[in-house]
Design goal:
This protein has 362 residues and is α/β, with parallel strands linked by helices. 30% of the residues lie in helices and 27% in strands. The strands form 5 sheets. Strands 1, 2, 3, 4, 5, 6 and 19 form a 7-stranded mixed sheet that branches. Strands 8-15-9-10-11 form a 5-stranded parallel sheet. The protein has a 3-stranded antiparallel sheet with strand order 12-13-14, with no helix packed on it. Residues 5-309 form the FAD/NAD(P)-binding domain.
């Protein structure tokens, strides 16, 4: 049995920040990640981040991961890699961990922070399982982590930030991006990203979706079609695309299976990405001792996830009784930064979702 003060499940931007914050308060922290390396999605992000100095503005994602990992080494944090949290025993508060493929261990923590991130959504259309059809995260992993080009001619499905950023990365890698399509009537991502790919001659077609993909054993092409305001396909508007790769970037869902199993109260909030846990202002769920941060709490930018992780780490450690004397100041500073990140028109969706979650939680 492993005993620890604070367990952090997930070693991405939220989990790393949570572990650092909890350790700074004086807690012994154990961070668990199913991968062979900490960093999560940051490892595959080659673009520079926006925001302020505290949020590592103008720093590339994989460099931020390295910074956080170096900070982790300086603190009392036990790291369990290649280890998956597979279950939670409610009666005694014990987590079941699978190390590798054949070893199971138990872990008991005074507080646990679930920062498991998100999973990609997929689309329903004929032949959507043909080889050559990827999620955007898989394409980023191939290109940015392993140096493998996914194909030669790509159709990007989704004009949010992920779709736009990955399209630009594909162009930088020498891949032809035939078009970016989105069923929504407007581009969902930052227009600065859209302008960069448009300047490279890539058309962005809004109100378009995939009608079908075709090919014998691998993807050889696809037909796209215009949709009306009710997302119904409009006959006669089909366009055939000569492509060998399709990249689907239509959003993420919070990865919350462990929270469901633990018995946390959940609500379906579309603005937050789907089913999300009810939590209080300290990021504690309805199951006492279990906290949540990052995309597992709501789908948002990595910068916000890092600040949320810091808040969850501070609060979890403080709830045990740890305080290095800076808890109140650090918490206040993090809350101000998070509010600033969510201010303005860009943050309206998240603000509305959090308000709805608070209303439905009553």
């Amino acid at each position: 049995m492993i005993n620890t003060d604070v367990a952090v499940i997930g070693g991405g931007p939220a989990g790393l920040s949570a572990a650092i914050a909890a350790a700074d308060m004086g807690a012994h922290v154990t961070i668990i990640d199913r991968n062979h390396e900490l960093g999560g999605q940051l490892l595959k992000q080659t673009h520079m981040f926006f925001g302020s100095r505290e949020e590592y503005a103008s720093t590339r994602g994989f460099d931020i991961a390295n910074i956080l990992k170096e900070e982790l080494k300086e603190r009392s944090v036990e790291v369990l890699l290649n280890t998956t949290a597979v279950g939670y025993y409610k009666d005694d508060g014990v987590w079941a961990l699978e190390e590798g493929e054949d070893k199971f261990v138990k872990l008991k923590a005074k507080k646990t922070i679930v920062a498991t991130g998100a999973m990609e959504r997929h689309l329903l259309f004929p032949n959507n399982d043909l080889p050559g059809i990827y999620g955007a995260g898989a394409v980023q992993t191939l290109m940015n982590q392993y140096g493998v080009m996914p194909g030669k001619k790509v159709l990007m499905v989704g004009a949010g930030n992920i779709g736009l950023i990955v399209s630009y990365q594909l162009l930088q890698a020498g891949v032809e991006v035939s078009a970016i399509i989105d069923a929504a009537p407007a581009i969902g991502g930052y227009l600065v990203h859209a302008s960069k790919v448009r300047r490279q001659g890539v058309p962005i077609l809004t109100s378009y979706t995939v009608k079908r993909a075709y090919g014998n054993e691998v993807l050889e092409g696809a037909t796209i079609v215009k949709v009306d305001e009710g997302f119904r396909q409009i006959p006669g508007t089909e366009i055939d695309m000569d492509i060998d790769t399709m990249c689907i970037a239509v959003g993420l869902n919070p990865l919350v299976e462990l929270l469901w199993q633990a018995g946390c109260k959940m609500r379906y909030i579309p603005q937050l990405g789907g089913h999300v846990p009810v939590k209080d202002e300290d990021y504690e769920t309805t199951v006492k001792g279990i906290y949540v941060a990052g995309d597992a709490a709501e789908i948002e930018e990595a910068t916000s996830a890092m600040v949320e992780g810091r808040l969850a780490g501070l609060n979890a450690a403080h709830a045990i009784g740890f305080d290095n004397g800076n808890y109140a100041r650090e918490k206040d500073n993090a809350l101000k930064r998070l509010n600033a990140l969510r201010s303005g028109p860009v943050g309206a969706k998240i603000r509305n979702g959090l308000l709805k979650l608070a209303e439905e939680a009553v």
